[in-house]
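Homework help board

Subject: predicted structure for assignment chain

Our instructor gave us this sequence and asked us to write out the predicted structure in token form, then describe one feature. I got the tokens but I'm not sure how to describe them. Can anyone check?
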Amino acid sequence: MAGEQDPRSLGELFTDLARETGLLVRQEIRQAGVEMSQRVSGVSRDGALLAGGAVIVHAAFLALVAAIILVLGEIGLPWWLAAAIVAVVLGAIGAFIIRSASAAIKQADIVPRHTIDQLREDQEWIKEQAT
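My token output:
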């Protein structure tokens, strides 16, 4: 629309720009919240797996300790040695499960990258509008 002039005054243009900028920022903040909640739900799932793994390891420990210690004791091992062997084996299994879940949580990306990129674009747009 070359040649046409906007009938609004400079003050009205800046008021419109400020209003639209405020609206844009509020929309971007809402978008960041949505993006963060999506990413956090993935981390929550991994955290639940971590807790579930820990509970399973604990239950296995309790059930197997009794059974295996009794078996090892019946075949001639001292009771303390039977208990130590079972504890080491189950501890290693539990450590593996916890390490796997921890690695998944550490790799989770919860930064709202889309929103950050959009805010950068908005900043550039605002600079262009102000010039």
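Reply (TA_rk): Your tokens look well-formed. For the description, you could write something like this. The longest helix spans residues 10-74. That's the kind of observation they're looking for.
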